[in-house]
Amino acid sequence: MRQMTITEARLKLLSFPEVVADEPMAIAKRGRPVMVAMGYDQYESLVETLDILSDQAFSQRLAKSIQQAKAGQTKTSADVRKRLGL
Fold first, then answer.
1. At 59, is the pLDDT very low, low, confident or very high (cuts 50, 70, 90)?
2. Which of 4, 15, 44, 49 could covalently link to 8 via disulfide, CB atoms 3.0 to 4.6 Å apart?
3. How many structural domains compose the chain?
4. Nearest residue to 42 (alpha-carbon basis) of 72, 7, 63, 16
């Protein structure tokens, strides 16, 4: 992750939307990261991901699905449509 000092961040505040558009930026005070700046789209994506992963039942089903896919236990779209009666 890129990093800049609080002083640099303060000087670039008006251009920060462009600075953090593609990648979060760690802001350091006395050489130690103390905060992170990120674009709003990145923030929304992070919050949504955390929300999804905080659902334990969903996370367990997802992990099982990943294991099944790695083991080659997949279904074709035709099989799924047939099972659903489509």
1. confident
2. 4
3. 1
4. 16
b/e per residue 45-83 (b: at least 16 CB within 10 A): eeeeeeeeeeeeeeeeeeeeeeeeeeeeeeeeeeeeeee
Q: How confident is the model at residue 83 (pLDDT cuts 50, 70, 90)?
A: confident
Distance CA 62, CA 56 (A): 10
The per-residue pLDDT for 16 is: 87
Residue 8: give its domain's CATH number: 3.40.1620.10
Provide the domain limits for residue 29: 1-57
Cβ(38)–Cβ(20) under 8 Å?
A: yes
Is the whole model's pTM more than 0.90, yes or no? no
CA distance 11 to 29: 14
For 72: left if phi > 0, alpha if psi spans -120 to 50, otherwise beta; the answer is left
